[in-house]
Amino acid sequence: xxxxxxxxxxxxxxxxxxxxxxxxxxxxxxxxxxxxxxxxxxxxxxxxxxxxxxxxxxxxxxxxxxxxxxxxxxxxxxxxxxxxxxxxxxxxxxxxxxxxxxxxxxxxxxxxxxxxxxxxxxxxxxxxxxxxxxxxxxxxxxxxxxxxxxxxxxxxxxxxxxxxxxxxxxxxxxxxxxxxxxxxxxxxxxxxxxxxxxxxxxxxxxxxxxxxxxxxxxxxxxxxxxxxxxxxxxxxxxxxxxxxxxxxxxxxxxxxxxxxxxxxxxxxxxxxxxxxxxxxxxxxxxxxxxxxxxxxxxxxxxxxxxxxxxxxxxxxxxxxxxxxxxxxxxxxxxxxxxxxxxxxxxxxxxxxxxxxxxxx
Amino acid sequence: xxxxxxxxxxxxxxxxxxxxxxxxxxxxxxxxxxxxxxxxxxxxxxxxxxxxxxxxxxxxxxxxxxxxxxxxxxxxxxxxxxxxxxxxxxxxxxxxxxxxxxxxxxxxxxxxxxxxxxxxxxxxxxxxxxxxxxxxxxxxxxxxxxxxxxxxxxxxxxxxxxxxxxxxxxxxxxxxxxxxxxxxxxxxxxxxxxxxxxxxxxxxxxxxxxxxxxxxxxxxxxxxxxxxxxxxxxxxxxxxxxxxxxxxxxxxxxxxxxxxxxxxxxxxxxxxxxxxxxxxxxxxxxxxxxxxxxxxxxxxxxxxxxxxxxxxxxxxxxxxxxxxxxxxxxxxxxxxxxxxxxxxxxxxxxxxxxxxxxxx
Amino acid sequence: xxxxxxxxxxxxxxxxxxxxxxxxxxxxxxxxxxxxxxxxxxxxxxxxxxxxxxxxxxxxxxxxxxxxxxxxxxxxxxxxxxxxxxxxxxxxxxxxxxxxxxxxxxxxxxxxxxxxxxxxxxxxxxxxxxxxxxxxxxxxxxxxxxxxxxxxxxxxxxxxxxxxxxxxxxxxxxxxxxxxxxxxxxxxxxxxxxxxxxxxxxxxxxxxxxxxxxxxxxxxxxxxxxxxxxxxxxxxxxxxxxxxxxxxxxxxxxxxxxxxxxxxxxxxxxxxxxxxxxxxxxxxxxxxxxxxxxxxxxxxxxxxxxxxxxxxxxxxxxxxxxxxxxxxxxxxxxxxxxxxxxxxxxxxxxxxxxxxxxxx
Amino acid sequence: xxxxxxxxxxxxxxxxxxxxxxxxxxxxxxxxxxxxxxxxxxxxxxxxxxxxxxxxxxxxxxxxxxxxxxxxxxxxxxxxxxxxxxxxxxxxxxxxxxxxxxxxxxxxxxxxxxxxxxxxxxxxxxxxxxxxxxxxxxxxxxxxxxxxxxxxxxxxxxxxxxxxxxxxxxxxxxxxxxxxxxxxxxxxxxxxxxxxxxxxxxxxxxxxxxxxxxxxxxxxxxxxxxxxxxxxxxxxxxxxxxxxxxxxxxxxxxxxxxxxxxxxxxxxxxxxxxxxxxxxxxxxxxxxxxxxxxxxxxxxxxxxxxxxxxxxxxxxxxxxxxxxxxxxxxxxxxxxxxxxxxxxxxxxxxxxxxxxxxxx
Lengths: 360, 360, 360, 360
What we know:
Mean pLDDT of chain A: 92
Helix content of chain A: 10-25%
Distance between the termini of chain A: 57 Å
Number of domains of chain A: 2
Largest interface: A-D, 48 and 48 residues
Oligomer: homotetramer
């Protein structure tokens, strides 16, 4: 390459065509719900404009390539290790990314990270109109200013500086009471904060999973256990308005490693849209065989009622499995009651599902 | 494993769940046409019952895992190197595979390979009722017996013993005139017989791509250039009847490396179903940008009309690309006339397509 | 392909060269010991000559491709589900594989699986001279006949028919006392028999890990958690004699998922040959940084002495990691005492190692 | 992640250990020569301090992870699109990367890109002491200042602005005569400049292959056809002095896609160190079989003398192949004369090698 260009991703060759490493977008497979689009979102990341290591346009291109629908660049207001080398303005990373986002059809959300030691910790304010207005020292004043811009506010990575310091505290209570706290980031990069999930469930706060990435992403082999930590937002439409509305309504799920954390009202239809059971393929005196297709990115783990003990079934991601169930040799097969042990609707509370076997 | 079981592929674990290498089916991505199912078929392969190296059930499981819809096991009648060790019967590989095919919902076609030195060469007869009836020495008598069973007959790998010996010859002419030749296998494993493609086009014979596999398949990383050689059959339904009817009607395409060979009447709608152009994402004085989604397994290569010289565009398989086109700054964008240089509807004859850019 | 040939693996092309899926051998990375070759062996597998699904030559080619040094084909004497279709002779799978083994430089060990319900279970006898002599009904007589051929005898997959049935029993005691039991297969395919490891350790029986494969192998992406279950044999030379001598001396380790099971006397030098610590790369008031290279196929897990609590370190396979240790700012760095928690020299007994940091 | 830290690559976990995507270094496989280390170098790349998109430390970490020995960050002096947002100083990207380079044992070379329209084009000056001294408008004065610092000077990507503009011209001649031109970058990212290779060969200028990367690297699946474009430098030791000395002596080769470009005196011993032929494994009346191990990253292509026509052989990278040669049934096998068609020692001039078959 000779000069850096956003256009380097354009799939036009003059000769022998493109190398296999060409810049392309590959979709993340989570189906839409009957009445909602399933948006794949990462709403927490950094650039060189705070302590990140990439230029803002890189975040858009990564998102496009990795199949995301929406991102927020949330550079710190208060932590600026590059300030000797850079002329920092708090809206600049958003502005620099805007054109690329339009070109690549990525919903770009304006936001910042409010950065304090724990407690109270870090908070993201997104859907802001002017990030710079949040540059003030008084902790609660910052949130008032964010609220005046109708911001969506998330408590980030609660357990980051240790479980003891990262407890739900006075600041959280006060912000919650003032309706200035809308979500908890229960998953951040490689970490999951088990203590924080019930805090969100009890108060009906949205749950978020975010990368909080500072480095460039590498497009390594992506597996159910090894992917960018994301938030699924179930929105009526793929627009900034749709996204915002759905987030304030708590219609989110956090996707972390091979698990989803969310609410029954979204995870149940997501499961139903993801899993398809075939008619019976084979039947013997005490068993029947079906194919089960799993259309999502999770290796779905089921614990199903069995004769003596529960049966464990794994449905690998984006694939069809052959599964055998206990069943009498004749008569319509009974539906199977199962717990989806990696779709969690509360602490240690798996989603309950009923697998119907269609007639052929 | 302690005993060999077809059931080893059943995705049921008693404890920690399945390893990532679990037996699953992954679909091959070629979309259906508006009025036809796109069936992925391999109609030429061998087992230990002739000179292959696997038991017949292996062929079914491979097909299931690799996303195929239909296979024919076509063991040789005349070449039986394992006959000292095996008690060969000509219908046996089909019979042994039948149960697995039913369990895995694979269309299993009965067939054999008629095996002579070139000329005249090897021929497959499929959709037979009794393979054993073809065990006779007289060359034309074999085909009469196949015809009496309404077999579909393919001339296999024409260039196998050299281009000189593999020419269209007297036997081919005679079989064609007697309506006992319905297809040419223009692609066989790693080989493509460029000379044979026009022979098929001129006589409206179906074109086939087959693996002719003798060894076990390995599920290595599959890329557009490196996959099992297959035939796409465009059938009104996914049944043996649907398959057979479509093949006799010539509704096939051969998928070999990163190319498709077929007829305009099937490749044009396949292209249309595979490629989706987005509304304009960006516009400048002389260019516009669109996203183009490619839903099929081929890195599609386009040669599009340009101002001075044709522009080459590559659309990587199962991905979305950003593409820039020359265009004036205003007015509705013109559709783009392109040649799909790896969808071939005749020797050196690329499919012609017209890419429309939708209004947003 | 037109005919099945062992030569299909020969890397000779007539034109554009070989496809990336060409048949090649890739080495398994476990270093040799100072006084022993580290042989990668799978001594338990099946072919169509008992209940396997591949022709014997396939087993040799798989071994070559996958980087093995030695295999034993161990078809059942008593369980012959293909006998209607095949003319079974008990030495035949060995004989058919011999030429390929010579061509591919694989040590081919003659053997069989003695097949009884549990208890007493299945046993492999290898290094036999004539498999057919073991075809007799009397259980102990079989072992006498094996012993007369100086066979090496392994108790296979102890827990296969349930932990209750798979206990060390009278038969095992009797065989052990008669010196007709030399090893226990503590790892078989996906299973590890934790109960059986102490039985081997206490009696100084060799420990084996075997695939017991019946199906064809697929060369999928191989990771530390997902590979063919193997036995490492530490032999003075890479010959059948070297292999045999080392096995009778108990110089083995079982490689199962991301763990090794063996003896201190072999695992300690294997660790030392696999791991290399660099001089100090950086030093601060209380820490130092080193690079650590891991030359083997295991993601090595260390639990090292720390100030307050043990520190966990992971050294990914075939890679170099940067590791930080607590250390004063001056003076020669102290060696670090660690437990290798996935190199097990007894039940729950990790290998103890001492990591020295070389002076630069 | 909560804060950006160079230490995020440290392989220390507090709990379950590291994810498979952990930051590790994997070596590039090109063997050392009998009297030289084979250093893998990328001496042309950019950061946010000119028109690149990453912070300087990212370049070091990428190099470490990808197995490189040396890099030069060569930000433009004259092209500074980020200057509104950044406080640019010409030595700053080097200074910011220095600590990381020391920690990760990467040789970091100070340098800049001298940026003019073609002709004369772009030039890299490396091994500088003070980049800022090159910030002057007079073209030849820049080179005098570089020369006073004993810089190594490369003409970059000759064909970048078209073959016509990128010809060897007056500036090149004048610099060459003043001994201010030491190398030509004949490979740059995806491009190879066939016209430029003879210009280097005729004048004994070193040949370089460089990434000229502006974006972050992605660690995608790396294959012989798809890797970072690099320069191999054959140096007496792995130090900055060793590197510099070897470069001035022209001891380099450019590695681009599946090809090496260099001189006979380095490529011949590199081939010899990479390729190992086994003793004869099998012999028939007119052929013999050997295994050939290829220890380097290139799918080596050989064209060997045959009876009637040359035989083409491909030896896949980092693997062992089985190869059959024509040979009489008895007598010592003759060495085989071959051309290595992708080790090029001049335009269309393959390296000549002689493959000896050792006695067993």
